Amino acid sequence: MTETRSTCPYCGVGCGVIIESDGTQITGVRGDPDHPANFGRLCTKGSTLHLSAAAPVTRATRLLQPLQRLSRGSTPQPVGWEAAHTLAADRFARIIREHGPDAVGFYLSGQLLTEDYYVFNKLAKGLIGTNNVDTNSRLCMSSAVAGYKRTLGADAPPCSYEDFALADTVFISGSNTAWAHPILFRRLEDARRARPDQRWIVVDPRRTETADSADLFLQIQPGTDVALYHGMLHVMLWDGLTDLSYIAAHTEGFDALRDTVRSWTPAEAARVCGIAEDDLVQAARWFAQSDRRDARDGRVGTTMSLYCQGLNQSAAGTDKNAALINLHLATGQIGVPGAGPFSLTGQPNAMGGREVGGLSNLLSAHRDLGNPAHRAEVAALWGVSDVPAQPGRSAIEMFQAAADGEIRALWIACTNPAQSLPDATTVQRALERCEFVVVQEAFSTTATCAYADLLLPATTWGEKDGTVTNSERRISRVRPAVAAPGQTRHDWSIGVQFARALEARLPERLNGRPTLFPYPTPESIWNEHRESTRGRDLDITGLSYGLLDEIGPQQWPMAEGEARGRDRLYEDGVFPTASGRARFSAMAYRPVAEPRDARYPFALNTGRLRDQWHGMSRTGTLGRLFGHVAEPAIELNANDLARRGLAEGDLVEVSSRRGSIVLPLVVSDTVAPGQAWIPMHWGGEVLGGRDAEGAPRLGVNELTLPTNCPTSRQPELKHCAVRIEKAALPWRMLGLAWLPQEQALAVREQLRALMGDYGHAVVLPFGREPHAQGLGGVLWRAASDRPASLEQVQRIVALLGLDGPETLHYQDRQRGQHRHVRLVDERALDGSTDRVLRGVLLAGDTRAEAWMKTLLQDELPAQAYGRLLLSGSPSAPVALAPRGRQVCTCLNVSEPQIIAVLGRCGGSPDERLGRLQGELKCGTSCGSCLPALRTLVQQHPCTAGTPEATPQAH
């Protein structure tokens, strides 16, 4: 076995991992105990990376050779790499010559490495001469970039993870940290355990697991963040809690902001936000450390803010970021240990992309595209005559331009805009109308791949070599553990080869040079990037691959001659602005871009699940990661169901002004009345069907709003107005099967092609990997306004392996009812033989779902049921206890198991949690379920009266 140190490819925490491999196959992964981001911890997603890299998954889901479609909608055919680059270069060169450089666009990803990013940024802005290069970081962090630049002068998070342990107050706004950044939440828990007087304030429209851990929770109305911060600043001014000496010495623009917030009294701000006035006042005083302003051991209390997509993904995203930073500047809570505004990055290398200028309005090393001197510096570094001055199109604008016929060629790398961009119908129209679409991707299963004229296979985690930068400005190495499979190539290499092919067709851009891309290795690219940072705020001229290998991950800046990177910024009170002072931003509060009305009375919010990642091209291959949240659903408050005569489990049609999808209802106390929540992950790959007019349903982003922040161009993904009505789809179908893992992955892809036959359809995995028999679970669900035809049912039966001699059948064609159950003999450990259920199809009448699903998924003995399995009974003919909701993914521990232990477990909350962990081991692996366990401890007191249940027993 070989061990390779690398970095996790998921969120912006930047956890170090140790990859175990046996030559050609990754066999295991664990957290790197020496990495300063995670010190050995991994969340549920990171700890299963090796399973998503297993050979059966790779064979079934990976794009392993270049493919070309001869016509739209046709099956792609293999093509060699040279022919692929020739085709791409010919098409791009022709479009550039006939329609100009701005007729092409590049859409990249925050999951690319810094070296990959650098090549494509130089390719577009340097060689082609267009600034139409943007990334999905536009959907993630561009408001944070704009907010930092507007107030502090540069895109630089000033804090470090070590500040978590030093803060007296932690202010979490617009971030469900417990789910989106679990390892950082573990560090926060550690900090509060070490310092019990540390206070947490959480601001969110939803009562999340993060909110449940708060000392003060402000459940504001969607989009009212600026009103909240203005109200808090009003309180600070009224109570004399601002730091006037800091304001005078290190800032400018305070008078204008003071005038702006004068009208935002606590009563008015609380009214707009929908919270109690006393809570707003308490939050302001805690933030300003009103009770800790007298020095304790020579130190005044400190406040650290953590924020993410709740602030960023908004039509007022830059204002929200800047308004929060105003509070830090007004109280001097910046540049000191344990204090500062800390934007939590959503993707693993969104920071690295920002560093190389990987957005349509940026240039390398945090240079501004609008600055002629900056453009000249980059042009000289690259060896081109100029860099275009006109900002390129941002993500939303780029796809709108393609839909309008203005952009004629798109190059999409390592991202899935057909699933992730808002207003998916417009994105679909853009991809269909665009003359030439190149998709550079590791996975063949993404929705965007279906629109590609040319598919180029890229390497992925465990195969790549380069660097990434995490949320705290820390640069880490990414190292390959195994060789690139099939004909895959590294993203930077694909970009370089395409650039060289294009150079032959655009020789006028070379200024007499043989090539602008003389890169034999990723390190050679990184060295050029490093030189571009010399003298800049993110100067990394003191770093090298060798030094990173020797001393480990480092934070920037780390200029030449420095021994280590800098923990925090602005400690001297000097900011990278013309005056050297930070700038207050006086903005007016603006309500949400699409207000609710009588036709669309609900406010829809979208966000992350704990165990899934983005479009699920990787996590969606693992049944284990669907244990926590098994299927798509929409969450509503119980009061809203009661008022509309709806019940949990009802299928409802959720419609916005842009489209509609169908989902089952789930009652939730996390959302307030009048609001709704759908996870962002449910795209057209897993959730589909057709509407009444026959148009395909494209997933959750068919609903969302493309309106974006005028400064950052980040779209409003946290709010849109929707209506919710019961769906007229009375005929239902449920299919479940255990199949050999590789076959299960292939069957799910085949079922995806059938979703359009129904008004609502879902295709997902289930199960727990690795299965003892190497099996994978397939879940198929469909609903329609009429029974499916016999041919349609038989097609599903065959795909689920229910057409063999081991299957029992029942059919009532007149009533559209079909039941098929497959039973096999399985030898138990004691040598006995059990009859177990391996596959089920219920069509027309699915009332037996609850117990049959439990019987199959938990692989319980089924011999006692016999032909009763075909009865369709809504209740189990033989007593059967369903496992219930899974809480701990790592150890497969369910909620009923946990409640049973808590019922006989007394003592303090910490003692009861310890007993729970001791018996069931839940929460002892990655720890992502710990917030849920603490909530269950609070909700379920000890009910037993035995000595075992007393505190003394512990």
**How far apart lie the N and C ends?**
42 Å
Could you say which structural class the secondary elements and strand pairing correspond to? Answer: alpha/beta
Taking strands numbered 1, 2, ... along the chain, how are they ordered across the largest sheet? 5-4-18-17-16-6-7
- The CATH architecture designation of the largest domain is 3-Layer(aba) Sandwich
Helical segment tally?
30
CATH class of the largest domain: Alpha Beta
Give me the count of strands.
37
**Helix amount:** 25-40%
Rg calc: 28 Å
Largest sheet: 7 strands, mixed
Q: Output the CATH topology of the largest domain.
A: Rossmann fold
- Rough shape? globular
Arithmetic mean of pLDDT? 94
Number of domains: 6
- The low-confidence parts are 946-954
Strand content: 15-25%
Keywords: 4Fe-4S, Iron, Iron-sulfur, Metal-binding, Molybdenum, Nitrate assimilation, Oxidoreductase
GO cellular component, one term: membrane
GO molecular function: 4 iron, 4 sulfur cluster binding; metal ion binding; molybdopterin cofactor binding; oxidoreductase activity
Pfam families: Molybdop_Fe4S4, Molybdopterin, Molydop_binding
Protein model, in words:
GO terms for molecular function: 4 iron, 4 sulfur cluster binding; metal ion binding; molybdopterin cofactor binding; oxidoreductase activity. There is one protein chain. 30% of the residues lie in helices and 19% in strands. With 954 residues, it is an alpha/beta fold. It folds into six domains: 2-61, ADC-like domains (N-terminal domain of TfIIb), CATH 2.20.25; 67-141 and 350-555, Rossmann fold (3-Layer(aba) Sandwich), CATH 3.40.50.740; 142-343, Dimethylsulfoxide Reductase, domain 2 (3-Layer(aba) Sandwich), CATH 3.40.228; 602-704, Barwin-like endoglucanases (Beta Barrel); 731-870, no CATH class; 886-953, BFD-like [2Fe-2S]-binding domain (Arc Repressor Mutant, subunit A, Orthogonal Bundle), CATH 1.10.10.1100. It starts with a strand and ends in a 15-residue tail after the last helix.
